[in-house]
Amino acid sequence: MPARSILFRGCAALALGVAVFATAAVAQQRDPAYAAARAAGTIGEKMDGYLGFVGNPSPDVKRVVDDLNIKRKAVYAQQAQAQHATVEEYAFTSGCLAIARTVPGEKYQAPDGSWQTRGSGAPQRDARCP
Amino acid sequence: MKYPELTDRPSLARSLPMQDERNGGRGQGRKVAQAATVLVAGSMMLAGCISVNAPDKPIVIELNINIKQEVIYGLAEDAQKTIDQNKDIF
Fold first, then answer.
1. A45-98 residue pLDDT tens
2. Minimum Cα–Cα distance from B65: chain A residue
3. Which terminal residue of chain B, N or C, has fewer Cβ atoms less than 10 Å from its own Cβ?
4. Scanning every residue of chain B, which has its alpha carbon at the shortest distance from the alpha carbon of A92?
5. How far is B90 from chain A (nearest CA, A)?
6. How confident is the model over A13-58, as pLDDT tens digits?
7. pTM higher than 0.80, yes or no?
8. What are the structural domain ranges in chain B?
9. Does the CB of B89 have a partner CB in chain A at under 8 Å?
10. Percent helix, strand and coil across chain B, each rounded to 5?
11. Could you give the CA distance from residue A16 to residue A22 in angstroms, rounded to a whole number?
């Protein structure tokens, strides 16, 4: 095999790797509309592992959140099957963790079902949460 | 001529209880006795040494909580990874 061909293939593979990495990096960031709604407290993390609306959402926020919840459910379903659990069990576990990861100022759902604003301390979580 | 005859013999059988259970006889007697026993036992229970009443509220056994906590603890590690790998939707 000529040296030039090997070099070309190496460059192509590198370019492909960079492209995949860049795509992954983009996919790992929150959509600006989602981030803004979280920070504003118009949406919050629910106990069941999905996002909920604290008040009446604007159509844009509703569309973004509905889309995220569908994506979450797909991920929950895939992982639940791999872990031999139900989607609800996996979603609930993720909800526990997602509430724990909220930052001060964000909204989350307390065990009594009410919306709470995350303070500097630990959030109120279900007794079953790890 | 004098005929030989047993003295003090029992009277002849007039019924064949073994052959005639369906229409009465000993079988019916037994059933009556059983019914009487049930009645007596029933009346003794009614007289009431112990009375057990069904509870008004349904009995609820909450197994759900324990099972779920075990499951949640088993899933926690994997769920952490999943959230880390899908930061765009969490």
1. 999 999 999 999 999 999 999 999 999 999 999 999 999 999 999 999 999 999
2. A128
3. N
4. B72
5. 7
6. 555 545 545 555 455 789 999 999 999 999 999 999 999 999 999 9
7. no
8. 26-85
9. yes
10. 50, 0, 50
11. 10
